[in-house]
Amino acid sequence: MKIGIFYGSTTGVTKKVAERVGELLQADVMNVSEIENKIDDYDMLIFATSSWNRGDVQKSWEGHLKFIGSKDYQGKKVALIGVGDQEFFGKTFVDGMCVIYTYIKYNNIKLIGRTSIEGYDFEESRSVEKGKFIGLAIDDKNQKDLTEERIVNWVNQLKNEIEDK
Description:
Elements: E1 3-7, H1 13-25, E2 28-31, H2 35-38, E3 44-52, E4 56-57, H3 65-70, E5 77-83, H4 95-104, E6 110-111, E7 115-116, E8 128-129, E9 132-133, E10 136-138, H5 144-163
Parallel strand pairs: 1-2, 1-3, 3-5, 5-6, 5-10
Antiparallel strand pairs: 3-4, 7-9, 8-9
Helix pairs in contact: 1-5
């Protein structure tokens, strides 16, 4: 299975997380600016964004949301990564992940990689559905010591879910 990870990063944290996930999955990792030329090359897609302002996607994603929303993901597995600050932005924690999901969720995707909200301390998040995050949630500012463990656990989960047909 060929995996492509597309990220938008301002401070470098999302890029670092995407690169670590890519290393563990042996996936191609690239900036979202390459998405329109490369998206069709992959069987599985991972979209990674930080959250800004009141839960917006990272700025680099803005010009590509309509594009990803116009794609048919039939036969592809999709996973999401959200990076945020649960203390300072506790009412919009990792909401950028939900913005991406909103554009693609009705396009024949098979979303994998939902994660538990346990161990986080935030007020609310649009990226929580049925008591779980819709993807990997990372708070490298307030819980930096948990970042690597969360990434490794998530990648192992993805590997299991990839095998499930």
